[in-house]
Amino acid sequence: MTDYFDKIHNVVILGSGPAGYTAAIYTSRATLDPLLIEGEADPTGDQPGGQLMLTTDIENYPGFPDGIEGAELMAHFRAQAERFGTTIISGKATGVDLSSSPFSIWISDSDNIDKPIRSHSLIIATGAHSLRLNVPGEERLIGHGVSTCATCDGFFFRDQNIAVVGGGDSAFEEAIFLTHFARHVTIIHRRDEFRASHIMVERARSNDKISFLLSSRVVEILGSTKVEGLKIEDVRTGAHSTLGVTGLFVAIGHEPNTSVFKGQLNLDGNGYIITQPDSTKTNVHGVFACGDVQDSIYRQAITAAGSGCMAALDAEHWIRENVS
Ligand code: NAP
Question: What Å distances lie between residue 257 and 95, 145, 147, CA to CA?
């Protein structure tokens, strides 16, 4: 079924995290018949459903007093969007032409690689992906002991000594989760203060299976076909040492998925889409952005969902005024 190439859509939504699905729920209930392009898994860690697919328990999403698994929450979002008639297709935007409406969007559909999907309006909810350390050994050993996703890979590290790099909430969440599998988890952080919330730090400190290596950075991941250790540099003294672990989880933050929009939309210095204050409008009329792709500050599932709602309302208003 590829007839979505043969018509001009009211609204196409790029991305299937909380922002994209919320935009889909609102635009489909507004009878705009949205087409949602859900993305696909790639080596940067992107995947349909977004970053929550890589998360364990979510305890702070309102409405779930006992918490909920990230993947389960996203399955609820998706079912709700489908219930109101959203068409969902898989694929990743490989190119866009936003010079005039209807906009053109090319996707990674091998049967239709040259044929764009066309839409009067566009909601961008492509999210962000995990950053890498960019040290020797990382590229070679990704999937062979180096991971950016504890939920996906934690199971493989039963009774092993492993490490997590980072000092934010992600690093702490991953480290605590990994103690269910690993013998011991070392949190390696380049400073001696943490960015993570107090409650996460306290939970990790009171966990016997977690220890800390502070003011330290990983300068090399050792091993030819699997992780055999880490070369560590003490940032205060410059001294090098080796940490004997068989796994490394990199949890050092994210960058927005905006490469396809470069030169067509205004981006900030870190690559995030710039939206107008109190709005999801970009610098191109009819193009709206929501969720982590335009938010370097809050980056929460609930704020992403809220901005997805805003984008849907902004797009609906724009379509009613501009599309006959
Ligand atoms: P983050 O808060 O940006 O933290 C990234 C951490 O990685 C920082 O400690 C940073 O060090 C370190 N880092 C960055 N680049 C590095 C490099 N090249 N080498 C070594 N260390 C590096 O990212 P995050 O932890 O992914 O969290 C992102 C947002 O999601 C935050 O707002 C967070 O609160 C939220 N979040 C919430 C939950 C939850 O509530 N359950 C869970 C996960 C994330 P410095 O501190 O020195 O800069």
Answer: 13, 25, 19
pTM of the model: 0.79
Hey, what are 181's tokens?
């599998």
For atom 37 of ligand 1, which residue has the closest CA? 169
Ligand 1 atom at minimal distance to the Cα of residue 254: 26
pLDDT computed for residue 55 by the predictor: 67
Percent of the chain with pLDDT over 90: 81
Q: Hey, what are 147's tokens? A: 């991971």
Contact 144, 226 (CB under 8 A): yes
Per-residue confidence band for 102, with pLDDT thresholds at 50, 70 and 90: very high
**Cβ 271 vs Cβ 256: under 8 Å:** yes
Centre of ligand 1 from the C-alpha of residue 172, in Å: 9
The residue whose C-alpha atom lies closest to atom 14 belonging to ligand 1 is 252
* pLDDT score recorded for residue 44: 66
Cβ–Cβ under 8 Å, residues 145 and 225: no
Catalytically active residues are 149, 152-153
Q: Does 78 have pLDDT greater than 90?
A: yes
> How remote is the CA of residue 254 from the centroid of ligand 1, in Å?
8
Whether residue 229 is predicted with pLDDT greater than 80 in this model: the reply is yes
